[in-house]
Amino acid sequence: MSKHRTSSLWMVAVAVMVAGLLGLAAPASAAAPATITAVTVGWGHTCAIGGDASLWCWGSNSSGQLGDGGTTARGVPVAIAGAWTAADAGTGHTCAVRTDGSLWCWGNNFRGQLGDGTTTTRTAPARVGDVTTWASVSAGDNHTCATRTDGSLWCWGFDRHSQLGQGGSVYVSTVPLRVGTATSWATVTTGFAHTCATRTDRTLWCWGDSSSGQLGIGTLGYRTSPAQVGTAATWNGVTAGYTFTCATRTDASLWCWGENGYGQLGANVPYQTAPLQVTGNTWAAAGVGFDTTCASRTDGSLWCWGHNGQGQLADGTTTHRNAPARIGTATTWTTALAVGYHGCAIRTDGTLWCWGNNGSGQLGDGTTVRRTTPVQVTFL
């Protein structure tokens, strides 16, 4: 047994002991993944997928959003049974796709956001229909959207602001509803009350609430069905935050729009109703949260800006920033990152690091201590 592995096990043992003292439950026994390939964060919980297709969740669990069958917060990762390919954490619920193409959701279901035909809260994964062709999923505040392998797009949950893209015809749907008839949807992202998605032709479309300009279509108000963002056909990724949105283009440029009260658009400007370019042309991927943005560059560096009240910019302070601030000096960050009131990102060696708010143990270090710089998550 190597010195590094011995040290890691000792650190985990201490974390579990501290978690017990804090009232945070220890995880169920499961083999630790050698690498982490994907991460997602909600309001107060985190989930990650390992290179072995295992799924792990930790942090707040008041609505069963960890999927471990209970409602006890976890200060260190707990394994969720099954083999998984994708997962996304909403405000108080989580959804994930299994390797067999089935879709499962759990947690808060007050507005039908679990898609299981009910409004019953679930503390363990509940299957969404019987389809086995789901490709990706995005969980928002009270609604969820997902793509299928045939290029179709489906949404369910709360539709008060037309975030389901149904033309204003529904208020709540407890089962998936198809968005239009297009079979060219590539990715989808859900915010608080708006939705954006890219198509295979690299066009970008948004709908729902645009009271802060978060749809990027140049106006305030609402759109009850998908509206194209400009005319560009070079979009390759989009991420929706609370009331703002950011997206990357194929030329490695990054664009943000919507609410900017904390500088989350990366500039000292008022709200924006159309895409505003963030300085630089070397952006690889971005993740946005409630009022915070983080993005990795093509050189492997990681940068954050916007709201920093909980240290979610990871720059060692709690000072809000209206321009990108670099996280340390590492150049080994990947495009796998997520941010809310806490943030997490994966490095090229497959390790996972988190920072920011930790009131429910969502950083996975066995404590509830807020961190203003990244701390490594250790899996038992």
TrEMBL record:
Transmembrane stretches, start-end: none
Pfam families: RCC1, WD40_RLD
Superkingdom of source: Bacteria
Annotated keywords: Guanine-nucleotide releasing factor, Repeat, Signal
First and last residue of the signal peptide: 1-30
InterPro entries given in the database record: Ran_GTPase-activating, RCC1-like_dom, RCC1/BLIP-II, Reg_chr_condens
All residue ranges annotated as the RCC1-like domain in the record: 34-330
Protein name: Alpha-tubulin suppressor-like RCC1 family protein
Source organism of the structure: Catenuloplanes nepalensis
